[in-house]
Every structure is written in structure tokens, then in C-alpha cells.
């Protein structure tokens, strides 16, 4: 993938260039210090991927995108978290907060690879659709329930719970509903962190406050600042196997 780095900070561009050395599939074709320069570079170099800062002299990163007839795939790189929702409204691949970690950068590039492969996969006669990229604990996910929206880090979600034909998400004081099944979520979540306690619930192991034996050799788990969850008999056996020395 050919990439263009757009940031008014030379230090930020240097740090990102250094991080990208760990990913040989990415070729940095150029840099730009502001939107006007980026517009010229995009026309000249035709990058497939844009690492784009938001606050820059003159125009913002959003204004740059609005001015382009056809924009590359975009990964925002910024020190501000308040623009995350707007970033996903313009179909950004990801939103990286500075300082950027190699793990978060790797997850973003996985999304870029998936987008790059999507047209070929759509036309290929494959028996099954490719599985979506797995999420890490540091990933942030967009959640919408009615007119309310959140951009929440997975590590802050303590529980996923079936509620009718929806799944309810527990984080902070919020309990939004999303039109996803637990099976879909389970396939995307890290199994070392998120555990399917029963048919109705997936818990974040990092939020466990206490565990106690329950009826018929099952377990009852209390989550910090949250509800108690009864683990099914089958999953209680698995839980002990997974977390025992």
C-alpha cells in the first residue's frame, strides 16, 4: 500500500514513519505539512492510504477531504478524541490517538488490507465470506442507539447481554442496544479477554470482581460496578480449564 503522511508536526511524521518500518507492505510515498500541500501530493502521487491529522494550519483534515473528488482510504492521527464520531461519518478506516502504539497501528493496517481486498473478494466465487478483522482491547467501536452515539474503547465494555432481538452493551452508566447477535460479536472479540458465560451473556474478564461456586458445579461471577452473571455448567468447566494453572 502506498501511503501519504499529512501532519503539520515534523516530529509526528517522523515518529509515524518509524512505526511504519515494522510493516513492509506499506510504502511511504510522501509527506505533507498542511492541507494545500496534501492536495497537491495526492494528485501527484495517488496514494492508496492517507494518514491524516485533523488540526493543521489553514484547513483541517476534514476540510481537505471535503475538497477532494476522490479520496484515498483515511486513517486519522490526532491528539484529540472529540472528533471520532465525525471521522466515522466520513468513512474513515480508523481513528488513532497520539501517541500511536504499534499494536493500534497494526489493527488499523489490517482494516486497510481488508478494504483493499474487498473488491476482489466480492467478485470471486468463494463459498464463504471472509471473516471480519478481529478487534483488540484498545480498539474503539462506534455504538449507535436511536439518536445517541458513543465511541467506546472495548476495554471499557464489561458485558454484552441479549435483550430481545438486540444485544445490550454495558459501559460506564450506559446500556445501549445494538442490532447484533452474540455469535457475531463473539467472532470479533478477543477470546482471551471476552468469555461467553452462557447463552445470553459475554463478559469482559478484566472486569471480574469476585467468583463464587454456585448450584450444580457452576459459577457465579460479580462484575465490578455491574451485575452478577451465572455461568452455565458447560462454560463453568471451560472457565476453570482456561484460567487454572
TrEMBL record:
Indicate the segments forming the Response regulatory domain, all copies: 2-113
Select a single GO molecular function from the record's annotations and give it.
Answer: DNA binding
Q: Boundaries of each HTH LytTR-type domain copy?
A: 143-245
Q: What keywords would UniProt list here?
A: DNA-binding, Phosphoprotein
Q: Check the record and name the InterPro entries matching this protein.
A: CheY-like_superfamily, LytR-like, LytTR_DNA-bd_dom, Sig_transdc_resp-reg_receiver
SMART domains linked to this entry: LytTR, REC
Residues where 4-aspartylphosphate occurs? 53
PROSITE patterns documented for this protein: HTH_LYTTR, RESPONSE_REGULATORY
Database matches in Pfam families: LytTR (PF04397), Response_reg (PF00072)
Determine the domain of life of the protein's source.
Bacteria
Q: What name does the UniProt record give this protein?
A: LytTR family DNA-binding domain-containing protein
What is the scientific name of the source organism? Hymenobacter nitidus
